[in-house]
Amino acid sequence: MTEPNRPHNSLYVISDRGEVVTRYDERLLSKTKVSYMYSPGISPVTFDVDGVRFGCLLGMEIHYPELFAEYEKLDVDCVLFSTTGVSPVAAQAQGHAAVNSYWVSFSVPTQHSATAPPGVIAPNGGWLERCPTDGSPSVAVVNLDDSSEAAAESVTYARPWRRESRAGVYAEHQVTDPRSEDRTAAF
Question: Contact at 8 Å (CB) between 47 and 22?
C-alpha cells in the first residue's frame, strides 16, 4: 500500500502456472486489526476454475453470515475460508455451508488441528474430508460434485427453493383474516 496506508490482510489466488490471478482482502476486521494493523478490503472476490466458482473469506468473517449470503447471491459453488481461529469456528463454517448449500473449505494452521482440523464441508453441512488432528502438515482433497450424495439434495432442491422463497413467493399466499391478526387467540 502507498504510505501512510496500512496493508490489507489478504488471500492470494495463484494459477497452476504460478501467476497471481486475484486477491481477496479481509473486509470485516477485528478491532485490533482495523485499529493497528490493516486497511479493510471493499469487495467480494470470485474466480472460476474448470467451471467451479469460488469465493474467499478470512479471519473473523466467519461471524458475519451476510458475507456468506453475499457469495450465495454471486452463485459460488465453494467459499474458501482461512482463519487462525479455532472451535466453534468449524461449527459455524458447517452452518454456513448448509444454509447456503455450497461447499466451504476450512483452513487453519496445523497447530490448531487438534481442536479444529482443517477440511472441506459439503453443501449439506457435513464434513467431506478432514486433515489429521496431530499437527502434521496436510491437505484435504475432495471432488466438488453436485451429484454426490453429500451435495445433490442441497444443490438441486434446497438452494433453488431458498432463492425462490427470498424472491417473494409467499406474497401471493398471504391472507388477511381476523383470526390470523388476533395473536392472543389460541383456537
Answer: yes
* pLDDT tens, position by position, 61-84: 999 999 999 999 999 999 999 998
Question: What distances in angstroms separate CA 165 from CA 41, 65, 101, 108, 171, one per listed residue?
Answer: 31, 18, 15, 34, 10
In this structure, are residues 102 and 76 in contact, taking their beta carbons and an 8 Å threshold? yes
The long-range contacts involving 31-40, CB below 8 angstroms and separated by at least 24 positions, are: 33/9, 33/59, 37/6, 37/9, 38/6, 38/7, 38/8, 38/9, 39/1, 39/5, 39/6, 39/7, 39/8, 40/8
Written as nine digits, the cell of 169 is 413467493
Which sign, positive or negative, has the C-alpha torsion 166, 168, 170, 174? positive
SS3 content of the chain, % helix, strand, coil (to 5): 30, 20, 50
